[in-house]
Amino acid sequence: MRNLLFIFTSCLFFWGQTVWGHAALVSTLPESGAILDASPKTVTLIFNEPVGITKMQLIDPKERQINLDSYTNRNEQIHISIPDMDLKGTYLLSWRIVSADGHPVGGILDYSIGTPSVMVTDPSANISIRNVAIWLSKWLGYLCLFVVSGAILFRVLAPKTKLSWVFPFALLGIITLPIDLGLQGLDLQDSSWATLADSTTWVTAFSTGHYAWMLGLMAVVFLVGLSTLNFHKFSMIIAIIGGGISGLAFSVSGHASTAPPQWLARPLVTLHIITAIFWVGLFIPLVRLLPSYRNPFPTLIGLTPLASFSRWITPVVIVLVISGLGLSYLQVDRLDSLWRTEYGEILIAKLILVALLLILASLNRWCYTEPALSGSTKAQKHLKYSISLEIILAILVLGVVSLWRFTPPPRSLNTSSATKTIVFHLQNSQIHAEIKEQRDSLGTWEIAIATHNGQIFSAQEVTLIITNPFTPEIEPLRRQAHQVGDLWLAHLPVLPITEYWKVQLKILIDDFDQVILKN
């Protein structure tokens, strides 16, 4: 058995296929907000990794939706053929792709032909009930997986214990899997509920190989759970295999499993999930051992699994915490990402709940377990209430981590920004200006204008103009800045570092005087 576990762990370390993380849009051509003289023949989207295309749609100024089926996907670049559009105004290119971690990613590229029109409705702005359904199915799937996997592993502690209570959880888990897969197809195509009857939706869902593999492995765990409801001579072996598959299911898909370096991320995910199941997955089996109306006075022999759990749970929790911190380090590039990103906010919520779990676990381990094993009815009741509270917290943790389905990790967000900081310096005989991207806000640029002796220069209006001399068919990108304290802020799309940019700053001093700075 030790040899099997060693081989299983080694396979995780040496699983060296190229797997990327959550895709991020690096740049576009034309840039977001560009004003063109004529309709572009092609639009290019450049990502930080190879992606799969699920939907491309153009929305014209009259809000007519045009499906775009002619495109080429070359590694990280997608080249979309655009039909001739004579209508003047603002266009929206709605794109949807699937990243290597199996999660859909969508966005909007806006550009205008001639004079920009009033912005049409952003198709991504409406919060669909579909996202709630995705979150709920994922939450239920995780909950059933942990309950069933915990029951499977409990078979190791109590080989002859009946586990008939696991049946509804295993059945519910099996039911949620096709629902989850169908919702994945809807999300990938950004389509309506009616398309669930369309085979294309399911084919698209299966095309995300890693995600489909994860659901398939979860199905195996649920089937293993059903096979271990009653004791037989292979129950111990099946229980160990089932626990390993539970960890493997999460190592083939998701943000954490695709974080570089792969040789470290995958084993950390597997260890984190298996140790979590060994801990929180055993809560329900353990609480069933304690006094109840069916078993008001449990015997010492009946509490033997609790004694075994108490002996080895401390090192398990230590491994759980270390692996969790390691995954957080891989996902969160900077400390301030914890409160500046949605991913970080979810992580903070999870850490708070886990901290409460650890407090209760310490209380159980050092205050209640020993007296409970000695036959103290009072300690047994306190332990039961405490574990019941742990179950509630564990359910909340699973609900919180299910929200990560909709939030890319900070490492992916920062991939779309340049590894260097672009800084422009402009000046004339009277004043100078420094223009640079804010470190903590992608796409927001700050403009500092001062005289040569260091005094803040007062202005009524500031306009930032950026052009690319190598693409003369694209009109200059203009953004009017707004004043915040002594600085002016302007919002721009992501600018590729490799490009050459020409910068111009128009500074309106008063109603009659204007200064133009060029680089």
What topology does this entry show?
Elements: H1 2-13, E1 25-29, E2 34-36, E3 42-47, E4 52-59, E5 65-67, E6 71-74, E7 77-81, E8 89-98, E9 104-113, H2 129-157, H3 167-189, H4 199-207, H5 209-227, H6 235-251, H7 262-279, H8 283-287, H9 304-331, H10 337-340, H11 342-373, H12 377-401, H13 410-415, E10 423-427, E11 431-437, E12 444-451, E13 461-467, E14 477-480, E15 482-484, E16 487-491, E17 502-508, E18 514-518
Parallel strand pairs: 2-9
Antiparallel strand pairs: 1-3, 3-7, 4-5, 4-8, 6-7, 8-9, 10-11, 11-12, 12-16, 13-14, 13-17, 15-16, 17-18
Helix pairs in contact: 2-3, 2-5, 2-6, 2-7, 2-12, 3-4, 3-5, 5-6, 6-7, 7-9, 9-11, 11-12
Instruction: Summarize the biggest pleated sheet.
Output: 5 strands, mixed
Rg calculated over all Cα atoms: 28 Å
The helical percent reads: 40-55%
Report the portion of residues in β strands.
15-25%
CATH-derived topology of the largest domain: Formate dehydrogenase/DMSO reductase fold
Strand order of the largest sheet: 2-9-8-4-5
How far apart are the termini? 69 Å
Q: Helical segment tally?
A: 13
Number of domains: 3
Shape: elongated
What is the highest CATH level, the class of the largest domain? Mainly Alpha
Residue-averaged pLDDT: 79
Q: Supply the helix-strand structural class.
A: alpha+beta
CATH architecture of the largest domain: Up-down Bundle
GO molecular function, one term: copper ion binding
Main location: membrane
Domain CopC: 22-113
GO biological process, one term: copper ion transport
